[in-house]
Design a protein that fits this description.
Elements lengths: L2 E3 L5 E4 L11 H10 L4 E8 L12 H15 L4 E9 L5 H8 L6 E5 L2 E2 L3 E2 L10 H18 L4 E2 L4 H8 L11 H13 L3 E5 L1 H4 L9 H9 L5 E4 L12 H10 L4 E6 L2 E6 L1
Parallel strand pairs: 1-12, 2-3, 3-4, 4-5, 5-8, 8-9, 9-10
Antiparallel strand pairs: 6-7, 11-12
Helix pairs in contact: 1-2, 4-6
Bound molecules: zinc ion (2 copies).
């Protein structure tokens, strides 16, 4: 296990035009990362298979080839990891496995973008039901993902609050959902997986990361060690955004290092 002194925390959640919801060029992202003095990034383009996703947009062979081109061009200044943000890998295990079989992936984010019953939580209709029920439906999916999915780090654990707030709905968590969230965290710890501090809600104008400091503290108390930071950038200017807040939170919760991944094996960076 390598142990290196931190310069600027690695950004392990970044989207490019290989995702269905970004048109960022990978090279532009690399240049932004170098300008901001990040020493390492992981591209994590979306691979989603749900009923509300455009079918077959993620092209892993082309994606990995573009990463190789960026490594050739920027590799002396920036470590570039080949990651993927896999949607509901516990449900779409075959499809997820087919993507990972295409080449050498360094890192897999596991994400719940759909609640139980594959209802898309990024759509306003989802929040037309009683809110308590909407949040429980999301966390039930997270519990299953945490227990069964093939991933390294579970992304934006309480993402549902970001979508809810986007539509002007209040989020009353994490307290009422503590049992489900803690069950998910227990599975993550037992299985040797990790979580991320996702700063996307912050740089989109909301007041909290996903998850919040309270959830991060629970994770730590339950023995959680594996932690990454992710801007969830969909444009180059958002790379590493609000990582000062993430650093403060990680230290406040008792973390002294961040995880990095190479061919899905863990390395550590001191913070
Ligand atoms: Zn996501
Ligand atoms: Zn993402």
């Amino acid at each position: 296990m390598a142990n290196e002194q931190l310069i600027c925390p690695p950004d392990y959640h970044i989207h490019t035009r290989f995702s269905c919801d970004s048109d960022a060029e990978m090279a532009a992202v690399c240049e932004a990362a170098i300008t901001r003095e990040l020493s390492e990034i992981a591209f994590t383009d979306h691979a989603d298979f749900g009923p509300a996703d455009p079918p077959g947009y993620f092209r892993p062979a082309e994606y990995l080839a573009e990463i190789e081109r960026c490594r050739a061009r920027y590799g002396d200044r920036l470590t570039i990891r080949a990651g993927v943000e896999m949607g509901e890998p516990h449900i779409f295990a075959q499809e997820a496995g087919d993507v990972l079989a295409v080449g050498d992936f360094d890192f897999v984010l596991g994400s719940a973008h759909y609640a139980e019953g594959l209802q898309p939580v990024w759509k306003q209709e989802y929040f037309e039901q009683p809110l308590r029920q909407a949040y429980e439906g999301y966390f039930r999916q997270v519990v299953r993902l945490a227990a069964e999915g093939d991933f390294d780090v579970l992304a934006h654990l309480d993402l549902v609050k970001r979508d809810a707030r986007k539509f002007g709905k209040a989020y009353d968590g994490p307290g009422p959902y503590a049992d489900m969230i803690r069950a998910a965290l227990c599975s993550i710890v037992e299985r040797g997986k990790g979580i991320e501090i996702n700063t996307s809600a912050l740089h989109r104008g909301q007041l909290e990361t996903c998850p919040s400091l309270q959830v991060l503290r629970w994770y730590r108390e339950l023995g959680g060690e594996i932690l990454t930071f992710g801007s969830d950038a969909h444009t180059p200017d958002a790379i590493g955004a609000c990582f000062d807040v993430a650093l403060e939170m990680a230290r406040a919760a008792g973390f002294e290092r961040l995880a990095r991944f190479e061919k899905r094996r863990i390395h550590w960076t001191t913070i």
